[in-house]
Amino acid sequence: MSEPALSIRNLVRIYETEGERLEVLRGADLDLYPGELVGLVGPSGSGKSSLLHAAALLEKPTAGEVIIEGRDGLLLSDRQRTAVRRRQIGFVYQFHHLLPELDALENVALPRRIAGARASEAREAAMERLQALGLGQRLAHRPGQLSGGEQQRVAIARALVNKPQILLADEPTGNLDPNTSDQVFDALRAACRDAGAAALVATHNLALAERMDRVVTLVEGVVRPYERPAG
């Protein structure tokens, strides 16, 4: 078996507010392999977003390790973590977070430009990703001119434009109707397969989760294989 693209070890996340102490993650472990799609399920408040944000090096957990390319990303400097995120990690949110003043092509090209690519190369890479996701006729449309499903496909293209090894998605179909949700998931899965990216997708939709390579859940702050309830 190949080396994991991402290894999470003994991840702990504790929130403390106004004297209250909430331990969301209590030693979570997870390996994510190249080309693998893993569904992450669990009720609201179970720690799915906390796990994803820590894995993406967007937030520092209370304790634990997030190993990417043999290094614990949590021990890197802010500048080094930013470089790892740009090069190795793509993130898709439930709400697309596209820039409303930019068209689809510009939104997708932006991460490539931030990573240092020339404008022409960034536009070419963005166009390739958008065309692969069936948006070749929507390149010049701004987010407000796109449907919800189209906006989310633009967000997927943006997350993959730098060819990351790891894609993390937090309820990427959570605000879509069932038919559009299926279409967006199919697009996400195909894009990940094409890129060879390891993907961890948090979702409340068990039907979608079970179409992935495996499904895990958070139980009392620990990652466990998901088992469908009997009956």
CATH architecture descriptor of the domain at 37-58 and 76-212: 3-Layer(aba) Sandwich
Low-confidence stretches: none
Q: What is the overall silhouette?
A: globular
CATH superfamily of the domain at 37-58 and 76-212: P-loop containing nucleotide triphosphate hydrolases
Cα Rg: 17 Å
- Whole-number average pLDDT? 88
**CATH C-level class of the domain at 37-58 and 76-212:** Alpha Beta
Distance between the termini: 35 Å
Number of strands: 10
Within the CATH hierarchy, at the fold level, what is the topology of the domain at 37-58 and 76-212?
Answer: Rossmann fold
Strand content: 25-35%
**Content-based structural category:** alpha/beta
GO molecular function, one term: ATP binding
Pfam family, one: ABC_tran
InterPro entries: AAA+_ATPase (IPR003593), ABC_transporter-like_ATP-bd (IPR003439), ABC_transporter-like_CS (IPR017871), ABC_transpr_LolD-like (IPR015854), MacB-like_ATP-bd (IPR017911), P-loop_NTPase (IPR027417)
Protein name: ABC transporter ATP-binding protein
Question: What would you say this structure looks like, in words?
Answer:
- It is a single chain.
- This protein has helices at 48-55, 78-88, 104-114, 119-132, 148-160, 178-195, 206-209; strands at residues 6-17, 20-32, 37-41, 63-68, 71-72, 89-92, 166-170, 198-202, 214-219, 222-225.
- Strands 6-7-8-3-9-10 form a six-stranded mixed sheet, sandwiched between helices. It has a four-stranded antiparallel sheet with strand order 2-1-4-5, with helices on one face.
- The longest helix has 18 residues, at 178-195.
- It has seven helices and ten strands.
- Strand 1 and strand 2 form a beta hairpin.
- The chain is globular.
- It starts with 5 loop residues before the first strand and ends in a 6-residue tail after the last strand.
- The chain has a domain at 37-58 and 76-212: Rossmann fold.
- Helix content is 34%, strand content 27%.
- With 231 residues, the chain is of the alpha/beta class.
- Residues 6-230 form the ABC transporter domain.
- One of its GO terms (molecular function) is ATP binding.
- Pfam families: ABC_tran.
- One of its GO terms (biological process) is lipoprotein localization to outer membrane.
- Keywords: ATP-binding, Cell inner membrane, Cell membrane, Membrane, Nucleotide-binding, Transport.
